[in-house]
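Q: We require from you a single protein entry containing the residue sequence and its fold in token form, and nothing else.
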Amino acid sequence: MDIADSVLDLVGNTPLVRLKRLREAERLRCDLVAKVEVYNPGGSVKDRPAIEMIDAAEREGKLVPGGTIVEPTSGNTGAGLAIVAAQRGYRCIFVMADKQSAEKVALLRAYGAEVIVCPTAVAPEDPRSYYSTADRLTRETPNSFRPDQYSNPNNPIAHVKTTGPELWAQTDGRITHFVAGIGTGGTITGVGQALKERNASVQIVGADPEGSVYSGGSGRPYMVEGVGEDFWPKTYDPNIVDRVVRVTDAESFLMARRVTREEGLLIGGSGGMAVHAAIEIGRELDESGLVVVLLPDSGRNYLSKIFDDRWMIDNGFIDAEGPVARDVLESRSTEIPPLVRMSPDAPAREAVAIMHDLNVSQLVVASQLPPLQPKEIEGSVRELELMDLVFRDRSVLDRRIGDVMSPPLPTVGIGESVTSVVEMLDTSAALVVLDGGRPCSVLTRSDVLAFLGTIGDV
């Protein structure tokens, strides 16, 4: 009988499938195929290192019966670890950033894990970050073990042993390019090592979110989950990676939606990012090229985000019908600055001067420099409210903006309908506009009024 002894025996040997229905893929001269990792029991490529890291910990006596696994995760590694834990009787505590989808949190809790959610918009060394929180929980939890996928050598070793050899065998050694998103760096490092040991000319290409350190960014801001970093993990070997392709959130999310609808493969944002990069690579190749792109997980984890039209509109990735906020912004005078930011440490007097000089009535307050994430906006300075404060107490002018600022302005996607914008401005004098998930401008009632004067009914 063909019966597996354990669900863990089902990890690996995932299939390859040709991508040929995307119009960009149809135009390529090379072959473009995908390694579909959703067929692993935990639904992602992270099942592979999860088993390898726990096996090694057990051999080395770092994880003993009745122990607790503590790990910061974007979700997929947690699912893999949770499956191993369920099979072997361990407790799990996972720490996640608040940008991860609700589905991922629910999935880990379904496996019986405890999940701690931490803010995204803080530095790794901040005690509130998910790295620091995981460190603290590991220290405080008796008989605990932290796999630390960012420095554990068994992360890339899992792919040296399994994913790389599978790709070589499945393509009969014809693979010329391997493309994958870079998160911990374990997948691309391990697969790259295995392939280059067999053929040193195989090109290893990383796909990276715009803003991540791998492609020259500072680590912020980006919204795609499970890839990119704000530090350099020990599990990433840059000497193995021949090239890194930078991909925006919008390119990632829109490609994920297209692959799902045109190829019938339900993939997440990081998969869309990898496909976008693979197509960019494929355009440079002739008929001898064979590009394999790794699709790390399923889009089921993102149904409330990138596959939800309302979420996509709210964050400025797609447009509603009819005139939209973008049309209002484009109709404004070019002399109006798009987004004026103030530090919370600046004096209120400086905000007054800037609003007067630039002829604006609202400023956003943020410690970080642009480009910003919406969560990095700490507050706002509003002309009417500040005037009221100063009228009552002139010393307000010399106080920190952070001490006298108003709450952050509501946000609206750049593709939101003007009808909805008008409704939102009924309760707020201004809105922060998001384009591709990033604040790009402030939209006021006077902007909309001027726009409506130039068109008919909306």
